[in-house]
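Hi R.,

Here's the chain you asked about this morning:
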Amino acid sequence: MPEDLEKRYLFNLQLFAEEGDTGEKTEKATPRRREEARKKGQVFKSTDLNAAVILLVGTVTLYVSLTYMITNLEGFTSVYILDRTLTDFTNEYIYAMYIEALMLMGKILMPVFLATFIAALIISYLQVGFIFSGEVLTPKLERINPVEGFKRVFSKRALVELVKALLKVIITGFIVYSVFKKYFYIFPRFVDMELAYTIKVLSVIIFEMALKVGVVFLVIGILDYIYQWWEYEKSLKMSKYDVKQEYKQTEGDPLVKSRQRQIQREFAMRRMMAEVPEADVVITNPTHFAVALRYKYKEMEAPVVVARGQDFIALKIREIAQAHGVVVVENPLLARTLYYSTEIGDLIPEELYQAVAEVLAFVYKQKKRVI
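And the predicted structure, written out as tokens:
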């Protein structure tokens, strides 16, 4: 192939490998990914579930406090309307009645407002917990991008919201129709009823409608919550490449970690070998194990293991010991026992005192030292 053609078709395959490594998002989100999403305000919740709970709590509270409301309304009308004549309606009187009416409205509606407010706080906390993030308030250009807006309008989420809205309208219409049909016979009789009794009958009808609608909305809200959870989990999924990259960021590159461990082992090995010349004796297998001991009877309770090794390391310990005049004693059973029962820096086990003492006595005799 000519050189110019070869250059024309020459490309970096690593670019494609890097892109292909991202792969399909099939892995579950890691705790770090979830935490980052939460910090950005990316949490899942069902607004339909919130609305259903608020509707049910408000309806029940309104029905339970209806007698309390009617009693307060009767007191207000008897004081400010029924016991007065039209000639008494001065500006001062109307102003006083207006203030009293505002206070009355706050008084009778406060239980409903308070109950729905607490219900909204509880259901929101149960769904997302306590979270505050300024990320959602940050201006983003894609929010005003008409192309992105068009995609959102015709997205799967928009289709789901449309289906839910149509379903709620149809169900609500059916419930209202069925309840009105059930109590239709009683409406003509309202003309002969007292106002208080008429209000009570209407409250029963409205309560039944609101309760049925609230229960249906609660079911829809639970289903929506499950869907929101599924969609949220799907949006957080990661590819295997993403998981590897996150692992590198949190735990470090495996190659780097491996190199660090190797350096640590080499440093520990050099430090251990540096202790061998200070040992009093090296006990060997003779070829497979070697354990170096040091004992200063005025400073130590028992002999200390300053070096230990197997095979190649054992050979190096023997070579260093011989080069520095440290006595090497062959005792296969004691060497194996010390190797498997101690670590570097450990005192020898108490059950080996006698055997080690005999070895040290032999060493000191060899060196003509007196304990």
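Residues 28-131+142-245 form one domain.

Let me know if you need anything else.
M.
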